[in-house]
Design a protein that fits this description.
This is DUF3352 domain-containing protein. The protein has 901 residues and is an alpha+beta fold. 21% of the residues lie in helices and 37% in strands. Among the domains are: 31 residues; 168 residues, no CATH class; 248 residues, no CATH class; 82 residues.
Length: 901
């Protein structure tokens, strides 16, 4: 055969081989690959959207956007999108490239302290390839980025690095799909998965589920609960890891639909349970969901609530490899229905939060009998009466953990009582007392107008539910964060707190759990409308014929329980004024001026609210019509000059003790029949009281504390008998009361006060001073005072210098520093309505003005309020609005001030 023919044949064969190779590569590139199969198995979250621009457009129209747009990651992403659009040289912007395109995003944990994202973007047409190529070329031409192409296991990986910041971006292409990440490690992990030939989706169990076919769904969200503890471990302290692991072991994965409303983000779908031995699911298997009736007893101060619905609660305590106590197992088995662990709002990060455990039982009397058998017999201090409830102490360590498993640890000792068909457990008797009082007053989730829509949107029944009130949980979150992440959380506090409520719920549905996650953002559009219509401040005036001579006293009208304000004028007429309508509810003409506060107590045969107060030498009690109750007023002596009336209810049974103190240091205690109590007719002390008398109960014993202006502190029993170690002398002048922190014994119950010279002193009920700390006193005329908030849960310290006021938190942190034109006397008031809803009021006696400041020490309103006395405040949580009541000349004024976000 001629050589020329041979050359032609060889050429044809080479062209055929090249053609076949090119065709195979073209076919391979054209082959459709599911992006889900590229996702590494260790993904914590995977989000799929089929039209990212549409999702973004909707997000911009919601209240969520004002906060989301301030997230550092979103700010950086926005800058990067703007850069890419500028480099596209007039071609279609990035939003056009992403329109109607299925895009994936997965989140992965890198080590113990880092996490990063991978983006999966299909490139379907020649125009889209050209768009990507142009972007990369123009990026290199800017001179700000360095590009390197390297080979990794047969794939070309492009690394783009910013010359100054060293920010990195790596990507490669596979079957016309771009895989992009800021972490080269994650890009390489995708390549290794491809080369292993194991292209399976981590969500393969949900291959027939796609919520994106619904018009109002913006994303499919996959959650891998087996990897979730690693992600949370990046943020949380190690001592929480066991709890996180157990809670995460309820399910192995979820696939949820993502929906958006104006200020809410909804995730709903189904989850597959974690069937491994020892998982939480193995303890809950087969148990139906239970209604969330617990909302009727959860206090408004709740920060975090873990709710469980169970038919058999003793299954929770069955830990693998442990020996079971048969009696405890029977006791635990007597509980059925709802189990709820509630952490209350903490007022600083140093103190452990108060906690309450609610456990439902079908037979409260039987369960109570079984609990009492754990500690037969009664000794002093193990039982006390609080209203209709008996609170009992059980000294068994970690009793809730023994009954319900390791999630419920942290109870050194246990106080318990019953409330309906719930048994309540706390580790602090003061927490139990406060809870019972709040439930009685209706300060619970189920009766909150602000929480009603949140609870309505969540599932009405569940097997496991987690509820977080972010504003109340802030200090708890800070306390739980790892030291490395605390700074980041503080820097982004304004963003986190805007998302004020989160609920995560799982309800059994055949072999899966129906799963619902609701993230709620505080509503802003309605607030902006209010501000635009009314301004930051609006006033309502109620005029009188005579000058008002008292501050406003906030009460409730006994007939309809509506808000009411009580004031007195110079004709000595006392008025009850409806706070909303301005109507006159009742009047009463007195013979003297009201001293101290007007208090309301349920009294008399009808058990309705009555008005209790003191004048110079009498104690009064008025009914709803302003008439004196039978036997009232009580006259204590013609020559007396009383300072105020204080009321004690030792056992919260309505058996009140009326406590009056005068300007000479005499203290009278009477019952509601006018009978002087033994030892108090009067008790003659060697100085005037610096603050109202205080009552506490410790270890079943009542303690009455009296703080004198001369620095002496007395502690008495109910019969006036002094407790050992008292009185104590602080050797300094006082104008402050005591802030209590009660413990299980007198030794562990401590009280804090501050002297006028700025010394913070702490002592216990044995009379021992445990700590003295001098605050900075910049001027010899500086005076200090401890100012508690109305609920008594926290306090601030006020320092008054000539023409200047500074406020400090319990931890000594400066909250506010303000200079004033005049050096007249100033009075500080502190109001706390939960979370950041704090209001500081500084009243100047000379010019008679009250200045309002929010939690950030910023003035609320442009001008101070003109008032002859300190103000009173109510707060509307739904409208985020403060109502400020003040009296000046002949006017009672109600000033509505919009709170800041």
């Amino acid at each position: 055969m001629p050589k020329k023919t041979i050359y032609w044949l060889c050429g044809v064969l080479v062209l055929m081989a090249l053609g076949f190779y090119g065709f195979s590569k073209w076919t391979e590139a054209r082959e459709k690959v599911s992006l889900w199969t590229l996702v590494p198995d260790d993904a914590v979250f995977v989000v799929e959207t089929n039209n990212a621009p549409r999702f973004l457009d909707h997000l911009r129209q919601t209240d969520l956007w004002s906060t989301v747009s301030q997230i550092p990651y979103v700010l950086r992403l926005d800058d990067q999108i703007a850069l890419l659009d500028s480099l596209s040289t007039g071609r279609s912007p990035l939003r056009s490239f992403l329109a109607k395109k299925n895009v994936l995003l997965s989140l992965h944990v890198l080590g113990r302290s880092e996490y990063d994202l991978i983006y999966y973007v299909p490139v379907n047409t020649v125009a889209q390839h050209r768009y990507i190529r142009t972007l990369v070329e123009n990026l290199g031409k800017t001179g700000e980025y360095r590009q390197e192409i390297r080979d990794y296991q047969g794939f070309q990986v492009t690394d783009i690095t910013h010359q100054t910041s060293n920010d990195n971006l790596s990507y490669f292409s596979y079957h016309n799909n771009l895989v992009i990440s800021q972490s080269p490690v994650l890009v390489e992990e995708v390549i290794r998965k491809i080369n292993r030939g194991q292209l399976e989706s981590p969500a393969k169990e949900y291959k027939n589920t796609n919520y994106l076919s619904q018009p109002d769904v913006y994303a499919n969200v996959f959650i891998n609960y087996q990897q979730l503890p690693d992600l949370l471990g990046v943020f949380l302290k190690k001592d929480l890891q066991d709890d996180v692991n157990l809670l995460s072991s309820l399910c192995r994965s979820s696939l949820l639909e993502l929906k958006l409303d104006n200020n809410r983000l909804f995730l709903n779908g189904f989850s597959y349970p974690e069937t491994m031995e020892g998982s939480l699911y193995s303890r809950l298997k087969g148990q139906p969901a239970r209604p969330f009736h617990l909302r009727e007893v959860i206090p408004l101060r709740a920060a975090v609530v873990l709710h469980m619905g169970l038919d058999k609660m003793n299954t929770l305590r069955k830990e693998p490899g442990t020996t079971q106590n048969s009696y405890l197992d029977s006791l635990s088995g007597s509980f059925a229905g709802e189990l709820g662990l509630c952490y209350l709002e903490a007022y600083d990060t140093k103190t452990s939060p108060e906690k309450i455990l609610f456990a439902q039982t079908a037979n409260p009397k039987l369960t109570q009998q079984m609990l009492n058998r754990l500690q037969p017999g009664q000794t002093a201090g193990t039982q006390e009466k609080h209203g209709q409830n008996i609170i009992r102490l059980l000294t068994a360590r970690e009793l809730p953990q023994q009954l319900f498993g390791e999630l419920f640890k942290g109870f050194e000792q246990t106080y318990y009582t019953t409330l309906g068909n719930y048994v309540l457990f706390t580790d602090d008797v003061a927490t139990m007392r406060a809870l019972l009082t709040e439930v009685e007053e209706g300060k619970v989730w189920g009766k909150s107008a602000a929480l009603e829509p949140l609870l309505h949107e969540s599932q009405q029944e569940d097997n496991v539910g987690l509820f977080i009130n972010t504003s109340h949980a802030w200090n708890l979150l800070l306390r739980s964060m790892s030291p490395q992440k605390q700074g980041s959380l503080v820097r982004n506090s304004s963003i986190v707190k805007k998302f004020n409520f989160l609920s995560v719920q799982f309800s059994a549905a055949k072999d899966q759990y129906y799963t619902s996650i609701v993230l709620r953002h505080q509503e802003e559009s309605s607030v902006k409308t209010v501000i635009a219509r009314q301004g930051i401040r609006r006033e309502e005036r109620f005029d009188f014929k005579s000058r008002l001579i008292s501050p406003p006293f906030l009460t409730r009208f006994p007939v309809d329980n509506s808000d009411e304000v009580v004031v007195q004028d110079s004709a000595l007429v006392l008025y009850g004024i409806g706070a909303e309508q301005g109507r006159r509810n009742w009047t009463d003409t007195l013979a003297a001026r009201v001293v101290g506060p007007v208090q309301q107590l349920r009294h008399g045969a009808d058990k309705r609210l009555k008005y209790f107060f003191a004048t110079s030498n009498k104690i009064h009690c008025l009914d709803k019509n302003g008439n004196e109750e039978e036997n009232f007023p009580f006259t204590l002596g013609d020559s007396l000059r009383l300072q105020r009336l204080t009321v004690f209810d030792y056992d919260k049974t309505g058996d009140y003790r009326l406590v009056a103190d005068d300007n000479l240091g005499n203290v009278f205690i009477l019952d509601t029949q006018g009978n002087m109590q033994s030892g108090w007719s009067p008790m003659r002390l060697d100085g005037r009281l610096a603050a109202p008398p205080q009552h506490v109960k410790v270890n079943g014993r009542n303690v009455l504390l009296m703080v004198l202006e001369n620095g002496f502190i007395h502690a008495f029993g109910t019969q006036g008998e002094p407790y050992p170690g008292f009185p104590i002398n602080l050797n300094a002048n006082l104008r402050s009361g005591l802030f209590p922190k009660l413990g299980i014994s007198f030794r562990r119950s401590v009280f804090t006060t501050v002297t006028q010279n700025g010394e913070v002193i702490t002592f216990d009920l044995t009379g021992e001073i445990t700590k003295r700390e001098q605050l900075l006193r910049p001027d010899r005329r500086s005076t200090f005072q401890l100012v508690p908030e109305a609920g008594g849960k926290s306090y601030i310290i006020a320092r008054t210098d000539p023409g200047r006021v500074a406020l400090f938190g319990q931890d000594g942190k400066l909250l506010l520093d303000r200079r004033f034109v005049t050096s007249s006397a100033k009075e500080v008031q502190y109001f706390h309505f939960g979370g950041d809803r704090k209001l500081y009021v500084i009243w100047e006696a000379g010019p008679r003005k009250a200045y309002l400041f929010d939690v950030h020490a910023k003035p609320l309103g442009e001008d101070p309020i003109q008032t002859s006395f300190p103000v009173e405040v109510r707060y509307n949580e739904v409208q985020n609005q403060f109502s400020i009541f003040s009296t000046h000349h002949q006017t009672l004024k109600k000033t509505l001030v919009q709170g800041r976000d």
